Amino acid sequence: MALVAQGNPEAREYLAFRLCERVRRIQRGLLGNVQDADDAAQETLIEILRGAASFRGDSSLERWADRIAVRTGLRVRQRQRRYPRDNDVEPDDLATGTHESTLDDALPRPLLEYLDVLPPKERQALFLRHGLEYSAQEIAQTMGVALSTTKYRLVAALRRVRKSIRRDIGLGLKGGNRDAS
Amino acid sequence: MHRERANWRLWLEQRRKVAELTDATEARWRRGLADYVDRDDRGPTDATRAIVRAALSAAAEPRSSTVTKTDRGNARPILAVAASCIAAAGLALWLTHPSAGRDGEDWHTSFIAGGVAIDGKTIREGDVWLPASTLVVTDGHACVHPRAQAVLCLDGGSESRRDASSPTATGIELIRGRASLDWRRADDAPIRVGKVGIRSTQGAASVALEVRSDRTVSATVIEGVIEFTTATAAWTATAGEVVLLPGVATTVGRVEPPPSAVAVVPPSDVSTALSPMEVPTEDPSESTPPVTVTAGELLGRARALRHAGRWKDAAQVYRRLQRMYPTSNEARVAWVSLGDLQLDQLHDAQGAIESYSRYLARGGALEAEARYGLVLAYRTLGEEDRERVELERLLDRFPDRDRAWRLRQRLRDLR
Questions:
Q1: A5 versus B378: which is more confidently predicted?
Q2: Are B155 and B179 in contact (CB under 8 A)?
């Protein structure tokens, strides 16, 4: 990180490549829209590269990057709120091919599609809770809302996800059978 | 009674099974989500590489500069739909660009694609083009802001030298190749090309410049009203007219004698000179074709502007392409690209509907994209009946479209 802070090109490139996929996944989870997620990922990487000098090593590099990614993602979402966009036609290289199929083949639908049914704030809360393993307190602080609000959002979000799962099961959808929809 | 009880038991049993399955699936989903961020089962994709490249480049620039958005190798290269925030970022790029409002001082490059060098040194976006130095674009594209409301874009194979007369001089010598000058609005002060001042007099305007074999520069007015001025005269030209500017330096440091005249040649009749101050420097009938920018070049330029986040400029170039080459394939494709731009970046859903409809009037390979664009445009306008009709048409024509299930879900909601 010291080399990155000094502007060493190889170190910067190594760091950017090391964190880029992770940051993209976080943004994809938080924002849903692929294009927005990639824009936010780019902004996050810029912040990481510029803020390398502030990395003190108190936590792992990934956790430090996660925090910056979350902050940036929420900021981008705030900015985007006025012009929500559909995600249907965007190619998502994070959710296709072997990458997606290895872990959640057992699910009726791709993993992130269950997040797509949620309103943005519930989505963010649920992703922070289960994707990044934030506590409810941390989520409340990060999103700038009361703890009770956060808990309510988590419960409501999970209820919606369960409803989607139940409906898929009722429709007879099982892992590897998604196209039947 | 016995039968009712049996049915009740069966119902309870089914309910219990569904609940168990739901619990198990939800647990799997949670585990999947927890693993999702840490997945590392492949190398970087093209999109990742593009993001990293752009981030490395932007991070190296001063904090004041705006992030340049990238082409991330989408599966829809023509129809790449960027986030709305890019529109804001593009606007910010324009408004907060270091050169904005500081006419004649540092000319920062705002968009670079391909090999671009100043005095032999390869440059990146944001680098400054100083007076008396020479900018060479070997391939690709480079744009600079000589004035706050104007942008000068140099095409591949071009070479240009900044005016050396003073640190604040707003002028270039186009030594070889092609360039374009675009104004967002009328400008009081001209930008000099060689010894001729060029400025927009009425709003947005555009002029294409090309160095000809005889070392003169042809200036084709693409859009708007352009005023050309020399030390002794001034002349105005409108879209379609070609102005021959006097010779410029062919090598660095060598400047041709001051111009004696400017010839204005309308494209419809190149043998007729219109300017009252003209003394043609050559037989216009032997000149190169009056319109020097091809449809492909215009399409490429529009794409480059989109990648740079300059949505309005890109839309202008698409429209210019459609005006200049209305029957070309490029112009047809441009309707869909323009529609996407209007819908996603310019927030002009009505305009997008018109653009998509123009494309669909003749159909083509992008029909699915155009129809989907129509659906989105009507959804944006809140016209649910029209949206439903277009959704039905889309699903009727392309039933196996990617994520068609979601469209069907939307259709059910609308019904």
A1: B378
A2: yes
